[in-house]
Specification:
The chain is an alpha+beta fold and 358 residues long. It has eight helices and eleven strands. The protein folds into two domains: 94 residues, no CATH class; 233 residues, Alpha-Beta Plaits.
Length: 358
């Protein structure tokens, strides 16, 4: 059985008590907010550790009764001990999972960028399918779903669409969706029944605030321009589209809906998300050795999943999982089964890495 790092548990418990005592001393509001955030983050594992201590004490009591002279009490203790040891094993696994380093962005909302890849009109239609899949999934999770920017495909779907999904924990659930999604099916325009392969790319970015990414005015170049619709025709006669260039990184974002005020806010939101994602990728690369074997979540060029319509199957190539539930998954209702499998695989890889380092 895997062992728990007792010194680390003791250190966490001491830190939790310190936070409680310090908050009770009424520090200044800014300090209090920071302490309260750390306190809230620690609370789940501390409660589990305290329950674990109770189970350990109960096991010791049961073993003492087992060695006593009272035969009836010993029988009762034996039955209780079996139940307690099973509970102990489960709590060890739970604490080990809670000890895994959390992605700082896991609780955040997300910005999802969908782009048609290879496959022309069929790729744009598939991007539309993915759009509806995530829209339905957001509905099931009771998250707010809104479109920030879109460019329609000639035959339907999207050449590109940027969406906001707002809800606590959205990034934790959706971060493994980043990458190339491939579809295999017979297009409606294919008279011979030949299967075509098309692709769309998905980028999932944490939706961050000013406190996460500080943007200095002198680092930004903001341009306004006339928004254009499909085929290049002007959708209005005012310079409503906004383009913001972050000079130090060279990142450029454009928002081109009807309201210039809203476009500016949208462009700033996109810029913060991309800068945060860039910094996060750099940090992840630095920890690459420790993260060896984990499920990828950032490489936009990685082919992660294939949706095969003729066979009704979806295959996630990162974990070699195939489900013959394409209709449910593409409708959003069955997506959780894939996401849960990815999270479980990622946690298993993290635990293995943690055991190797201990």
């Amino acid at each position: 059985m895997a062992q728990l790092p007792r010194e680390k548990l003791e250190a966490l418990e001491k830190r939790f008590v310190f936070l409680e005592e310090t908050m009770a001393e009424n520090p200044d509001p800014e300090t209090y907010v920071k302490l309260a955030k750390e306190y809230s983050d620690l609370q789940p594992i501390i409660e589990t550790i305290r329950q674990y201590h109770g189970v350990v004490a109960a096991i010791a009591d049961a073993r003492e009764m087992l060695d006593g002279d009272d035969r009836e009490m010993a029988q009762m203790a034996a039955a209780e001990l079996e139940e307690l040891e099973e509970k102990h094993s489960g709590m060890v696994d739970e604490i080990r999972l809670l000890l895994l380093p959390r992605d700082a962005a896991d609780d955040k909302s997300v910005i999802v960028e969908l782009r048609a890849g290879t496959g022309g009109d069929e790729a744009a239609l598939f991007a539309g399918d993915l759009f509806r899949m995530y829209q339905r999934y957001a509905e099931l999770k009771k998250w707010k779903f809104s479109v920030l920017e879109q460019s329609a495909g000639d035959m339907g779907g999207f050449k590109e669409v940027v969406i906001s999904i707002s809800g606590v924990g959205a990034y934790a659930r959706l971060k493994f969706e980043s990458g190339v999604h491939r579809v295999q099916r017979v297009p409606d325009t294919e008279s011979s029944g030949r299967i075509h392969t098309s692709a769309a790319t998905v980028a999932v970015l944490p939706d961050v605030e000013d406190v996460d990414i500080k943007l200095r005015a002198e680092d930004l170049r903001i341009d306004t321009m006339r928004a254009s619709g499909a085929g290049g025709q002007h959708v209005n006669t005012t310079d409503s589209a906004v383009r913001i260039t972050h000079l130090p990184s060279g990142i450029m974002v454009v928002a081109s809906e009807k309201s210039q005020h809203q476009n500016r806010a949208t462009a700033m939101k996109l810029l913060r998300a991309r800068l945060y994602d860039m910094q996060k990728e750099a940090r992840d690369r630095e920890r690459a050795d420790a993260r060896k074997g984990q499920v990828g979540s950032g490489d936009r060029s990685e082919r992660i999943r294939t949706y095969n319509f003729p066979q009704g199957r979806v295959t996630d190539h990162r974990i070699n999982l195939t489900l013959y539930k394409l209709d449910q998954i593409i409708a959003g209702d069955g997506l959780d089964e894939l996401i849960e499998a990815l999270i479980t695989e990622n946690q298993a890889a993290q635990l293995a890495a943690m055991d190797e380092m201990s």
